[in-house]
Amino acid sequence: MSKKNQDKPVKNSFFNCIEKNFDKAERFLSIEKGLLEQIKSCNAVYRMNFPVKIGKEIKVIEAYRVQHSHHKLPCKGGIRYSIKVNQDEIMTLSALMTYKCAIVDVPFGGAKGGIKIDPQAVSEEDIEKITRRYTSELIKKNFIGPGIDVPAPDYGTGEREMSWIFDTFLSVCPKDVDALACVTGKPVSQGGVRGRKEATGLGVFYGIRELCRMKEDMSSIGLDVGLVGKKIIIQGLGNVGYHAATFFHEAGAIIVALAEREGAIYNQKGLNVSDVILHLKKTGSILNFPGAKNIENTETALELECDILIPAALENVIHKNNANRIKAKIIGEAANGPITPEADEILEKKGIIVVPDIYLNAGGVTVSYFEWLKNLSHVRYGRMEKRFSENMNAELLQVIETVCKNKIPKEEKKIILKGPNEIDLVRSGLEDTMISGFHKILDIKKSSKIENLRTSAFVLAINKIVDSYEKLGIFP
Ligand code: NAD
Predict the structure, then answer these.
(1) Which ligand 1 atom is nearest residue 368's CA?
(2) Rounded alpha-carbon distances, angstroms, from residue 450 to 27, 179, 207, 447
(3) Among 202, 303, 314, which is best to mutate for testing ligand 1, by the most ligand atoms less than 8 A from CB?
(4) Architecture of domain 44-190
(5) pLDDT over 90 percentage in the chain
(6) Which residue in the list 72, 76, 112, 231 is annotated as catalytic?
(7) Where are the domains of the chain?
(8) Residue 219 is inside which H or E element, if any?
């Protein structure tokens, strides 16, 4: 391979990148080599080709479902629609899912699916045909089911595709009382859970907010604690990037740049994310947003001055050729695998704190887990306790007023009285998961004197997976 191409995201390299990160954790573990090899390897790879009639032509569609680990069942992971989909990519993303689930205590093995299409170049009707046919292929090979393998949205897919998947599954398995749990990320009207759509972006926000609360870490990079006033750049204004941007903006951070496929926009005073979305809907592009400067080459936006950089689009966007030019003090990996191992080493030498994908974007799978539980229990979160909590709160307030001989103001009373509904419970569960996950990683980093959060996160994940293997009694 020519030197020039060594660090390019070439075919068959992404899986090796993750293996390299995994291997860095080995020296902090005392685990038999064979078991580590088993954890690293993909348990099952299903590569399929199927025909779909598009217009008057028959097109052969290439697609994948990879189950990386069966140490816990079902397997879980999103489905990606992109023209760049290939086996190596889907294997890697499925491996990341295994580590992610272990870190946030979600009892699933990792999986991932992908269809090699450009969803922007295919009509809605054809995307539906392709999605339904893909689901049928998964059913035929027993690669989908509430206790087997449960897909979810990823790059290029959303609620719409998930409801087609559910509908196709139900039509083949109408007697399965748990059929709703065969896929997550569904619309709320079709068994989805409130809060799933924004979960990954909100999880990214909770994770970065927690890091920014750490005085020691913040002073090591010359920043004050807290998010207020921190300058943020976000790449990718899709599901993850858009929601993360919105939560950072609401918390008082300043979104100085947003990058999309067609270019980036910059305003050092800050961009209003919802106005940018309105502009995008109106003009079809984020460029020429009033008050902002256009940046033609979208990649250069990653190199602008800021405190926090959030890549939320695709993998390998920070590589050894641009890592040295990154000026951010914190990088939050909202996307999967946005930093190559070579770039990671450069960033570490520069003292940049990288919050790794296997922790930071786990909000989606966490809330998918809540949705799966909701589907299996056949009851909405909050249904049992909302009224009970409200009655208890009312009694408590009455006692306080009697004892204090004082009336609590009406508005404050209203807030205290309110019992939790589904979105409150989901967000509370997500917040707790992200905060406790962060501290587990930080504790390992400190106690094992590990240089960075990524290796610490891998140590945490591997230990958890080994525990499960031992509990299964597979390796007595
Ligand atoms: P999405 O399809 O909703 O959005 C991706 C966005 O990135 C799109 O707006 C697209 O136009 C933009 N984009 C594509 N190429 C770009 C480029 N070169 N420069 C700038 N922007 C570009 O996808 P998503 O669901 O938001 O996923 C984004 C990333 O987050 C992926 O890596 C995915 O694997 C990861 N992720 C997603 C979820 C989830 O719940 N959706 C969960 C975990 C991880």
Answers:
(1) 40
(2) 10, 44, 19, 8
(3) 314
(4) 3-Layer(aba) Sandwich (3.40)
(5) 94
(6) 112
(7) 44-190, 199-360
(8) helix 215-220
Active-site residue flag, 20: no
Task: List the residue whose alpha carbon is closest to atom 37 of ligand 1.
Answer: 154
Among the four given CATH numbers 3.30.70.330, 3.40.630.30, 3.40.50.720, 3.40.50.620, the one describing domain 199-360: 3.40.50.720
- Residues 369-425 pLDDT 10s: 999 999 999 999 999 999 999 999 999 999 999 999 999 999 999 999 999 999 999
Give the list of residues 6+ apart from residue 289 with CB closer than 8 angstroms, or none: 265, 271, 275, 276, 279
Q: What tokens were used for 43?
A: 């348990």
Tokens of 455: 């290796």
Residues with CB under 6 Å of ligand 1 are 78, 153-156, 200, 235-241, 259-261, 298, 312-314, 334-336, 361, 364
468 CB-contact burial (10 Å; exposed 0-12 / middle 13-18 / buried 19+): middle
DSSP of 91-110:
HHHHHHHHHHHHHTT---EE
* Nearest to 422, CA basis, from 185, 195, 198: 195
pLDDT higher than threshold 80 for residue 210: yes
